[in-house]
Amino acid sequence: MSILIDTKAAGERVAGTETLCFDIFDLSAWSQRSQQSEKDVKQFWLNRYQSKRQFQQYVQKAALPKVNARPLMVDTDGVARIELPYQQQEQPAVYLLAASGETGTQEFLPMVFFMPKEFPSETLALYGKYQEQQPAETVEEPKKLVNKPSKEKQLPQTNEVSNNVLLGGLLLALIGGMGLAYQKQKQEEK
User: Does the global pTM surpass 0.70?
Assistant: First the structure.
C-alpha cells in the first residue's frame, strides 16, 4: 500500500522541517489487544505526547515493532513516501508515525492511522499537525548574590510587606464577618 505523508501546513512548507524524518511502528497487535475504538486508540496515543523524548520512551516501553529499518526522510517538497503492508494479522493494519529532526519552533505531532476497511485503489495521503515546540528542560545554576550597600532606600527583601498585607486583609475580613454576625443577631432580637 502506497502512503504519502505531507508535512506542509495549509500548503506551505513549515520552517525547520527540511530534515524531518519518520519512524513508523506497527500498532496493529497493540490495538487489537486494547479492544478500543479507532477514536479511542488515536486519543490514547496523542494523550501520551508531552515531549518527543517522553513519547519515544513510552513507545519503547510499549515494545512496538518498528516497520521501517531506516528513518523515512522528507523530500524537498516536504513529502515522504513509503510502501506499507495493508494487513497485519489478517486485518487492516494500524500504524503509529513519530517524527523527529525539527529545527524550528514547530514540532510535528505523532500520528496514528488505520488502513481503510477496503483496499484503496489510490495512494493514501496523510497530513500532519504541528504544535509549538516545548522548551528543553534546563537547570540553571544559582546566581551569586553580592551584598552591596546602597545609599537609596530599598524595600525589605524578606516578603514582610506582602505577608503584612495578607494578614491585614484577613483581619479586615474577620472583623467584617463579625460585624455582619452582630447585625444579624440584633435583627433577630427585634
Answer: no
